[in-house]
Amino acid sequence: MRQPRANAFRLAVTVNSRLNQRLTAYVAAASAAGGMLALAPSAEAKVVYTPANTVVTSTTPIDLNHDGIADFTLALHEFQKAQVLLVDPQVTGNSILLGPGGAAAGFFGVPVGPGEKFGGASQFSYSWGVFMARFSEGYSTVSIGGPWANTTNRYLGLKFTINGQTHFGWARLNVSHNHVLLTGYAYETTPNKTIIEGHISGPEKADMLAPPDLLAPPPQRASLGMLARGADSLAIWRREEESVTR
Hints:
Blueprint lengths: L16 H23 L7 E9 L4 E3 L9 E7 L4 E7 L5 E5 L2 E2 L7 E2 L5 E2 L10 E8 L4 E4 L5 E12 L2 E12 L2 E10 L6 E2 L15 H4 L8 H5 L2 H15 L1
Antiparallel strand pairs: 1-13, 2-3, 3-4, 4-9, 5-6, 5-8, 5-11, 7-14, 9-10, 11-12, 12-13
């Protein structure tokens, strides 16, 4: 006697047009999201902060990105029987955020970024750097002047280049008569991105590319695991959906 084929007893499942459209769209979207997450580079955007406790002398370098090359130098120079505090860009294209009378003495929380006024060396008649403060002593008097005179925890806005791309940063200093202390510096790793003075940390990686509803579908929607089970799972999904909509 001829034995019936095993697949002859399988039930045929008819999928209505609305369900079929939703299933097709879901599979396409899930496949696209998986491809985007697999191919997308792990872009990072963060602030790199370096704490410091350095007394500024004749030449104090600032290497913002720790590549072994000084991006700026802070220095106390003798000038007309006085000492002058200057900041000097060390690489072509590097510059200092300017304010009234010289380098701006910025406050905590102020943004430094594109569109602001930056200047390099040869500013304000000091051919070797940008003016910050001047200290002088007479027979019975001591004086200090300039935008950085008698300041505590103020921020020097910096613009510099890494591999030909512009980045922004800051350096924090305390300045009093004949004593200048560098207490830290930071820069933003994303080119042309504004940094906030005093900001010492940032997000370690960019937001995910796939929308949340693709990565975590609602409970009533079929999972990829369910889809892999084939026609049987479609029947189950259809029954569940019908019970919800009734």
